[in-house]
Amino acid sequence: MTLTAAPSIAASGHGVRWTRAARLLGLAVLFGVLLFLRKPRALLQAELWADDGWTFYPQAYMHGWRSLLIPYGGYLDTLQRLIALAVQPLPLTAVPTAFALAAFVVQLLPPVFLISDRMAVALPSWPLRLVLALLMVALPDEIEVFVNLTNTQWNLALLALLVVMGRPARSRGGSAVDVVVLTLSGLSGPFMLMLAPVAAWQAWRRPGTSTRSRLALIVVTAAIQVAVLLVSQGRPSSTPLGAGPRMLARVLSEQLVLAPEFGWRSTYPAQALAVWQDNLLPSLLTLGGVAVVALSLWRGPLVLRQLALFAGLMLAAALADPTVSAIGQSWEVMTHLPIGNRYFTVPVMTWIAMVLTLALDRWWPVRTIGVLLLAPILLLAIPRDWSVLSWHRTAFQAQARAWAHAPAGTRMTFQIVPDGLRPMELLKRRD
Question: Is the pTM of this model over 0.85?
Answer without folding.
Answer: yes
